[in-house]
Amino acid sequence: MSMKPTYGSIGVKLVVLLIAAALLFAPFLFQDVRSIEVAARICIFIVLVASYDLLIGYTGIVSFAHTMFFGFGAYGAAILLKQMGPGWAPVVLGGLAGIALSLVIAVAIGLLSLRVKAIFFAMITLAAASVALVLASQLSHLTGGEDGITYSAPDLFKPATKLLVDAEGKVLKIAGVRMNGKIAAYYFVFLSSAVLFGLMLRLVGSPLGTVLKAIRENEARAEAIGYRVVAYRTFVFCISAVVASLAGTIYAVWLKYTGPETALSFDIMIDILLMVVIGGMGTMWGPVIGATLLVIAQYYLRDLMGAAAEAVSSVPLLPELLNPDRWLFWLGILFILLVYFFPKGIAGTAMEKGVRQ
């Protein structure tokens, strides 16, 4: 029996295509600073969540250490940018240092822990992430402690950098957007994220992706037909750690600040889990939708509720319910509704309904 994609799966891919187009042209469509910050954060979290989906969605591994690897990449670049000054050498060396540390920790955790039951592995990764957060806070001479590290990005990304100039030597404007270092920084984030996402998409579409799904569905059967389950799980754990580390490096270059709250906080891990659940596990399209929706909600739900509260100011009780300070309450309600109506996530549920025999 052949599987024919119909409206559900096609619709999901169209939505992803629209998101990609909006992110590609974000500097021209949304020219305020906040919107560009939102677009850059969406790009980075798409990669971060997709790399986590390699674990939980494609292999069935539950890990709470993903922010640790993200933090390794961020701190690697941040520390060297602070000590060596702005330039590409500290970015590359810091990124490589983050990858190396992530690989060492991932191999150690994988080989030592992936033989145990899932809940024990999850607890071990949680403990490792907690240790990393404590060390980042306490090694203040290296990491800046709770205050974090502020540094300068490479000169190419400075607002004063002129990428294109007009006849008078001034910064050229295209569609009202100045061609300076700020737009270079955004497209560095976008293109780097697109390349990493494309590589993960290629990975899950390869024979390795099929093996990972087989391990997720029935570990004992995969082991019985000759696949070394621990080796495969350790390998994908390492790949996921490397991609998360690279995402951290990209974010550090964009943000020009790295601290425990922006790179290692457990709040980031919760965001990743929410994005995976909202978008759908076991599909690379899910992280795109989940990351986009949650980041937009985090930045704009308060504003939307403020406008709604003003609009219904004459109605009893409603303005109090829609008070912007209650935005987390409404975000929780929306999350519950999404899980109820889309039990496999938006992309997962739609694609399941969108394929017929």
TrEMBL record:
Keyword Transmembrane helix carried by entry: yes
Pfam families for this protein: BPD_transp_2
Top-level taxon in the UniProt lineage: Bacteria
Listed InterPro entries: ABC_transp_permease, LivM-like
Location in or out of the cell: Cell membrane
Originating organism: Pseudooceanicola spongiae
Any Gene Ontology CC annotation: plasma membrane
GO molecular function, one term: branched-chain amino acid transmembrane transporter activity
Membrane topology classification: Multi-pass membrane protein
Keyword Transmembrane: yes
Protein's name according to its UniProt entry: Branched-chain amino acid ABC transporter permease
